[in-house]
Amino acid sequence: VAVLGGGAFGTAMAAHVARRGNPVSMLLRNDDMRDFINRHHINPKYLSDFDLPPNLVASTDAKKAIEGCQVLIHAVPVQASRKALEGIRDHLPLGVPVVSVSKGLELGTQLLMCDLITDALGRDPKDNPVVVVSGPSFAKEIMDKRPTSVVAASKDLEAAALVQRLLTSPYFRVSITDDITGVEVAGALKNVLAIAAGISEGLGLGINAMSALVCQGAAEIRWLSVKMGAR
Length: 231
Prior knowledge:
Elements: E1 2-4, H1 8-19, E2 24-27, H2 31-40, E3 56-59, H3 62-66, E4 72-74, H4 78-88, E5 98-100, H5 113-121, E6 130-134, H6 139-143, E7 148-153, H7 157-167, E8 172-177, H8 180-202, H9 207-227
Parallel strand pairs: 1-2, 1-4, 2-3, 4-5, 5-6, 7-8
Antiparallel strand pairs: 6-7
């Protein structure tokens, strides 16, 4: 398994998959961070309180990290995703599912990650099926093996089932769906709702206002998702 990105969530996903007994290559941009991780099995910048499994290896060589992988997990922030994907597309084998754990829309194009990935790779969607993994999943809690539940969404349910088998553990539950648009839109917009909820809390508006905000926000997310093609 190859993981593109060594931030907090990329590190957590790489460690989680490695704990499941899979060899993992985490592709980074920084040579010093690569060397530190491989020497000490700790990410010095993110989640440094946790040891990384010995079968997780950091690399700055895209060809070495990606060629031969069976799954690619994309954990790069949305606005940096296109450049990152264009940099590795020549090394990504056909048929390898691309698992996105990034949330949001690309500025300018307004593309969701499922469409951005296909566009940046310059391939037919069937060549490398995209699976979006989303849900309440803080990186630190994944590293700490706290109970977590997410959904793997893809138009290719076989690819979604593959990701489900890869990630499922006694403390990490994965459901699958083919409603990839609904999962992506909800995953992006819930952050807007969370900010609004924080403002409401900070202003001391009370539980009534918070409840109304969450209900109205959830309804508007659903309405927009359906307009964008979700079920």
